[in-house]
Amino acid sequence: MTKKVFWGVLAAASAVAGFASADTLDDVKARGKLICGTSTGLAGFSAPDANGRYEGFDVAYCRALAGAIFGDPEAVDFKPLTTTNRFSALSAGEVDVLARNTTWTLTRDVDLKNTFIGVNYYDGQGFMVPKELGVTSARELDGATVCIQTGTTTELNLADFFRANNISYEPVPIETNAEAQQQYLAGACDVYTTDASGLAATRASFEAPGDHVILPEIISKEPLGPLVRQGDDHWADIASWTLNALIAAEELGVTSANIDELSESTENPEIARLLGTEGNLGEMLGLSQDWAANAIKAEGNYGEIFEKYIGEGTPIGLARGLNAQWTEGGLLYAPPFR
Q1: Which whole number is the average pLDDT over 181-204?
Q2: For residue 151, what are the CA distances in angstroms to 86, 257, 278, 321, 334?
Q3: Phi and psi at residue 105, in whole multiples of 5°?
Q4: Alpha carbon of 286 to those of 19, 24, 140, 234: distances in Å?
Q5: Predicted confidence (pLDDT) per residue in 309-338, tens digit
Q6: pTM
Q7: Backbone angles phi, psi at 144, to 5 degrees
Q8: Which CATH number fits domain 125-220: 3.60.40.10, 3.40.1190.20, 3.30.1330.30, 3.40.190.10?
Q9: Among the four residues 53, 152, 278, 294, which has the most C-beta atoms within 10 Å?
């Protein structure tokens, strides 16, 4: 090997090693707050309230993560990102974590160099149409104009579905959910397609939700979840186990109402480890012993967050379905805290 090649290889190896050793937790602590990338506005998932305070299912995860790190769920800023700039913002370090209804795919994981830290909502792509069209199936949409967000997995899914069913469509590209809603209600497109949860959230914001129908077809798997940059396993562990803590808390019966009592009196060893009254799991993560308890206290366990923002008792009206705990026939499952 020539000296030139040797030093080139050494420089490349050093660059990779430096990237991999970066510790986002140190940066977040030095800054004094978490920066969370979220959507530009999706009811029930992430949107500012009348006072400009972000709320929603995805937002609650970010507050839990801030709670785990700082013991303060308010130590977080939210940066609205579109479907086209979300990955570049994460890659450039503009946000520490991205939590905005993003589908986990091989390309996004490997080629875009992201690390998905788990699934917080199992979803699938659907279609919404005005009831007055009289359409009852997506297979009746031949020749329809379809509003679709650019930079999403829905574009390829849509093309595959129409081609497989030998029907045609005309795409109407849009960038944000707000734009999609405006175009759809203005009649610029016959159909709006996105994740079924997103359709439910969008419909709930209409003045007359009952005038619109979500068709029965679900044409894809869309596992949605938070993600971080590749190259910092420590930060990925913290982000992942915070989500796991919310899921495990529901399974173990730990709620925002009983968490203090359980911290003092539980005889369940896994609950004790989860809440930091036994063992040293917090130390392993570089956090305080009560990190998971603080994450759960932020807005409750997974089930509490689901019901508060998107459950059947809300205008969004989503059933748990696949997002029920594994003990209840769903797919939700947290690894053991031991």
Answers
A1: 94
A2: 10, 41, 46, 27, 30
A3: -130, 165
A4: 19, 12, 55, 9
A5: 999 999 999 999 999 999 999 999 999 999
A6: 0.89
A7: -75, 150
A8: 3.40.190.10
A9: 294
